[in-house]
Amino acid sequence: MSRAKKIAVLPGDGIGPEIIDEAVKVLRQVEKVFGLSFEFQFAMVGGGAIDRAGTPLPQETLELCKKSDAVLLGAVGGPEWDENPPELRPEKALLALRKELGLFSNLRPVVLYEGMEKSSTLRPEVIAGVDLIVVRELTGGIYFGEKTRQKAEGGEEVATDLLIYYEHEIERIVRLAFQIARGRKKRVTSVDKANVLESSRLWRTVANRVAREFPDVEVEHMLVDNCAMQMVRRPADFDVIVTENMFGDILSDEAAILTGSIGMLPSASLGEGSFGLYEPVHGSAPDIAGQGVANPSATILSAAMMLRHSFGYEEAAGAIENAVKHVLSRGYRTPDLATHGQMAVSTEEFGDRVVEEL
Ligand code: ATP
Ligand code: MG
């Protein structure tokens, strides 16, 4: 057996601890079934950390993450901390973690599982077969470029945000997208606004250069406005979508509605090498916290992404995904997904079913 993989577990606030419990339970089962070994170390993050340590990201938590092989995070935030000053907001911990850990990519797979067509607000025939992944650049672009705000002549205010990308920033995210495509349907859609933006023209040049390293992967370029439209018109045609920070922010939220429930969507944030941070797309859901009704699927599926991307345990990752799929197809649903005739189960029971399935 190889060295135990060190996993930093940050449950956070709201439903965070409840859904993390289920993901850890599933990982413990994976250890048994696949003969793997994980070392879990828990730490504070978010609102709870503000209350107990005076900061959303305590130094010990950051250090634990840095010496771990991967981070599994629940969710942070809640109404208790909404009025806090910016540096004492729970969400600050997420931005600080991404930056400190050099996580320049965000991966959001969007998969419509069998029998879930009715959960979406879109027509079943439109979303049938949706299985795509949005690869978003996370540490560059307009979010991080220089910002100015000043009085212009005549007294009105003027503000600017610089959209800046270096070749190396584009290259590493596009290469990651192509590598991911190789394990999927081998199709990359690179999204930009090259008819208007110079940074997009550079993006396209670099994307074409990287594409030459992957002759087995098909590449198409799409303008972001068109992509936004195609995503709700023929979403099943997409495989891997790669794009810059702001376009990715918008498109990944748009993609999220294709499957209907936010409780189903996992994510991974990756940097150089195998290290990564894994968390559900949803937030801390304070409205249902402590009731044992949260859907743990997004967190369990995030754990599967961790096995795949950080540890290379593809078989175990696929087994978790299949287990969730089977539990759902047998009709077990947490209340967010349960419709007439289906068994509404608790967070814990859903986790138990996934363990059983494994
Ligand atoms: P954040 O700003 O942290 O993203 P938010 O208020 O925008 O938080 P969520 O915390 O994701 O959003 O909650 C949005 C809605 O989705 C809430 O009604 C919440 O109860 C529901 N929700 C979120 N996650 C889950 C889950 N895992 N299971 C069931 N319902 C969920
Ligand atoms: Mg939100």
Automatic annotation (TrEMBL):
InterPro entries assigned: IsoCit/isopropylmalate_DH_CS (IPR019818), IsoPropMal-DH-like_dom (IPR024084), Isopropylmalate_DH (IPR004429)
Role: Catalyzes the oxidation of 3-carboxy-2-hydroxy-4-methylpentanoate (3-isopropylmalate) to 3-carboxy-4-methyl-2-oxopentanoate. The product decarboxylates to 4-methyl-2 oxopentanoate.
Protein name: 3-isopropylmalate dehydrogenase
Cofactor(s) the record lists: Mn(2+); Mg(2+)
Gene: leuB
Pathway: Amino-acid biosynthesis; L-leucine biosynthesis; L-leucine from 3-methyl-2-oxobutanoate: step 3/4
Record organism: Lihuaxuella thermophila
Entry superkingdom: Bacteria
One GO process term, biological-process aspect: L-leucine biosynthetic process
Keyword set includes Methyltransferase: no
Annotated compartments: Cytoplasm
NCBIfam families: leuB
Keywords: Amino-acid biosynthesis, Branched-chain amino acid biosynthesis, Cytoplasm, Leucine biosynthesis, Magnesium, Manganese, Metal-binding, NAD, Oxidoreductase
Catalytic activity from the UniProt record: (2R,3S)-3-isopropylmalate + NAD(+) = 4-methyl-2-oxopentanoate + CO2 + NADH
Primary localization class, coarse: cytoplasm
Binding site for substrate: R98, R108, R136, D225
Sequence positions that bind Mg(2+): D225, D249, D253
Stretches assigned to the Isopropylmalate dehydrogenase-like domain: 6-354
